[in-house]
Amino acid sequence: MNLALSGHRVLVTAGANGIGLAIARAFLAEGARVHVCDVDEAALARLAQSDPVITRSRADVSNREDVASLFREAIGALGGLDCLVNNAGIAGPAGRVDEIAPEDWDRCVAIDLTGQFNCARLAVPHLKASSNASIFNLSSQAGKHGFPQRSPYAAAKWGVIGFTKALAAELGEFGIRANAICPGLVEGPRIQGVIADKARALNISHEAMTERSFAAVSIKRFVDPNDIARHIVFLASPFGRTTSGQEISVCGDTRMLA
Fold it and tell me: 3-class DSSP state for residue 100?
């Protein structure tokens, strides 16, 4: 299928690794022009070697000066903007709410929620000039079900859904659509770290925690980052022009998080 994305101008935050890199490459495969940012300078250096056509910046989305610099560089490289993918996020701390350090709460919310605001507010003026504009905010199944031992992350990801619905309502008159993507357990080192942290907190084995994590998931396998990328690329195309304000699950039918 030709998704009519040739020349589409895309900015992906945290795009040098993991889900973000899969998204960047999926857009690239459709002929889009892509700029990414990341805080991982080693990953950015690897990207420069593996995918030199993807332009890149070092930026922490929770830092507004970094974000302002990112948008200057991204718009300069792309010549405008058609799609923002707010992918940057951290797992945050694991533990009961009374065990969470306030600074760990603040850092998680600053990156996972406020970072999306920092980018969206600068993206909107450019997206208004696009004939096919979209914003994708990465939420989580934790943003739909909650997540015990992970209250900062769950709170931030619930906030992402509310933020997305507000954006969709505000921006529809300009033809800009906004959707929240809610992955389940995504294959990669982050989820393995989360499982390890929760296993220690509950004093059970990694294997037992993995089994417990999938207890209320119909398709009991980790989500491939490329599955998330393909959903986003399709919805960013003209075929997704009337899909907005949705929380879209890519999760193997997750009914609860353990």
Answer: coil
